[in-house]
């Protein structure tokens, strides 16, 4: 069964740090772009960051640029989101997603992991 499994969520103080992990299981994802999205209560899900299949290109939403870092380990099928200097407004459920590099739609999603940032 192909699936994405996130971990690493929890509670963190504003200004601290937290690292989220997402393991892709069931097949290699070396030809897929990987991304992180989040959804806060009462809000729509929003794009946070993505890394290309090669790992050479990264993309960030303006709201997290300079604070969050995405990376991937192709050997272990894992993508990370390093969250530095989190803010209370970063509180949300964070989702990992995958899409074929040649495609435009995110076709596979994880179950999500809760991140709560306290002030």
Q: What attributes characterize this protein structure?
A:
single chain, 119 residues, 4-stranded antiparallel beta sheet, globular
Walk me through this protein's architecture.
The protein is mainly β. The chain is built from no helices and 11 strands. It starts with a strand and ends with a strand. The model has no long low-confidence stretch (mean pLDDT 95).
Unreliable segments of 5+ consecutive residues: none
Q: What is the helix tally?
A: 0
SSE-based structural type: mainly beta
Rg for CA atoms: 13 Å
Largest sheet: 7 strands, mixed
Overall shape: globular
Count of strand segments = 11
**What's the rounded overall pLDDT mean?**
95
Q: What's the end-to-end separation, in Å?
A: 40 Å
Taken as a percent bin, the fraction of beta residues is over 45%
What is the H-and-E element order? EEEEEEEEEEE
Residue share in helix = under 10%
Topology:
Elements: E1 3-7, E2 10-13, E3 17-25, E4 32-39, E5 46-51, E6 58-60, E7 68-73, E8 78-84, E9 92-100, E10 108-109, E11 113-118
Parallel strand pairs: 2-11
Antiparallel strand pairs: 1-3, 3-8, 4-5, 4-9, 5-6, 7-8, 9-10, 9-11
